[in-house]
Structures are given as structure tokens and as C-alpha cells.
Specification:
binds thymidine-5'-diphosphate; 5-stranded antiparallel sheet; globular; Jelly Rolls; 1 helix; about 140 residues; mainly beta
Length: about 140
């Protein structure tokens, strides 16, 4: 995790099965769509305007972040470089590798941030202090 860079994180295009009559369907499948096995899914919703979420990094967790509805921004930071992504399409996902500080902002009304994660919930995998993060990345 020490060596990871924001440039190791990428936006990926997900499948979109379109029907003029029935609407759209997007599939995310282990090892096919995402380069890890999804062990956990969680989603953020009803985030009040102006609130920020997710100010932390993970030691081992790989994630795919999707705006299942609405929009928000994700800022990734590897201690040297920051990149900000606008997520506003349910058929796009941001792959985030371990060792990246990530912050989610600018949630639109009705936004749903879906996160598919490579591991179960483990508080010991979190780095919640930015100074600790910077120390680890040195
Ligand atoms: P937290 O990761 O602090 O949210 P954020 O960084 O987006 O603000 O999680 C908020 C709460 O939810 C915290 O008490 C831990 C709990 N939680 C779980 O129990 N399981 C999970 O998978 C996640 C992601 C959080």
C-alpha cells in the first residue's frame, strides 16, 4: 500500500444493457468487471448538501465506487498528487487501490454512492488520521 499512486486508480466503463422500453441495466461481476472478488457492498445516501464523507484511507482494501444515482465528487490523494473525479453515471465506476486517501464531496440531492469492496468490514484496515497516512506514505 505504501507505493500506490493516484494514477493506479482508474475510471472504468461498465456494461449497459439498454432497452428503449424498459430502461437500462448494468452488471458488475467478480473478476470480469472488477479485478477483485467483491466481499461487501455498502451505499451512502441522504447525504446532506455540503457534507463530506470518507475522509480516510485503507491499507489493503480495493474498491469500486459507483454513482448509482445522482452525482458527487471523489478526491484521491496519494500524499503527493491529488485527482478529483466527478461520478455522475451509473455505468461508470472508479477503481481505488489500497493506500489512497479518499474524500467524497458535492453530493447532489438523491445521490447514492455504491461501494463494492474486496474485503469485509475491518476497522483495523482504516487509516483515519491524515498525518498518520502521510507518515505511512513516506
Ligand atoms: P465510515 O467508514 O466512518 O463512513 P465515512 O468514512 O463514509 O464517513 O462509516 C460510518 C459508520 O458505519 C462507522 O460507524 C462504521 C460503520 N460501517 C460498518 O459498520 N460497516 C461498513 O462496511 C462500513 C463501510 C461502515
Amino acid at each position: 500500500m505504501i507505493d500506490t499512486k493516484v494514477f493506479d486508480c482508474t475510471m472504468i466503463e461498465l456494461s449497459r444493457h439498454h432497452s428503449d422500453r424498459k430502461g437500462n441495466l448494468t452488471v458488475i461481476e467478480n473478476s470480469v468487471t472488477v479485478p477483485f472478488n467483491v466481499k461487501r457492498t455498502y451505499y451512502l445516501y441522504d447525504v446532506p448538501g455540503g457534507e463530506s464523507r470518507g475522509g480516510h484511507a485503507h491499507k489493503d482494501l480495493h474498491q469500486l465506487i459507483v454513482a448509482a444515482s445522482g452525482s458527487f465528487t471523489v478526491t484521491l490523494d496519494d500524499g503527493s498528487v491529488k485527482r478529483t473525479f466527478l461520478l455522475n453515471r451509473p455505468y461508470q465506476g472508479l477503481l481505488v487501490v489500497p493506500g489512497i486517501w479518499r474524500t467524497l464531496d458535492d453530493f447532489s440531492s438523491g445521490a447514492v454512492c455504491m461501494v463494492l469492496a474486496s474485503e469485509g468490514y475491518d476497522e483495523s484496515d482504516y487509516i483515519r488520521d491524515y498525518n498518520d497516512f502521510i507518515e505511512l506514505k513516506r
